[in-house]
Design brief:
rod-shaped, 9 strands, alpha+beta, 167 residues, 1 helix, 5-stranded antiparallel beta sheet
Length: 167
Amino acid sequence: LGDGCRRSLDYGGLGMVRTRWGAGYTLTELLMVVAIVGIISSIFPALFTQITRFFRQNQARAYIQRDARTVFDLMGRNLRQSQASTVVIDAAASQPPYSRITFTRQDGKSIRYYQSGTKLRQEVDGGGAKQIAENLRYIAFSHPRSDDDNLIAVTLTLEKATYNQQT
């Protein structure tokens, strides 16, 4: 056995000779494993963060779109039933300009939509206000530049927190 690393074994005179290398791993193999584990462990947290951010952004987008569709459907239905001469657009105290609309429907019910902080509220016939959307950043009602007073423009901005204080 000249090099000391290999041995020849004869199994009971059957004529089969096998060569066996020393047991264990070489230093090169260990360094490769450590390098691969290091690379994977440095990439995984960033990948996990990106996946979490992507999931939360898509979830917020779906939530906001659902709220916006609900708001526009409800407002549109009620505004189509309103009497144009009863529409009043103003602002509640400490709220953005043109953030409140009040009108009377053809059935005689008075409807009011207004912003209260980050909530959009609906009030029917002066009764209790119910929240119809949250995460409201801005709403504005206006008459677009037209000779038709029956047109009302509604601007709505919703936002929701997603990840690391981002909206």
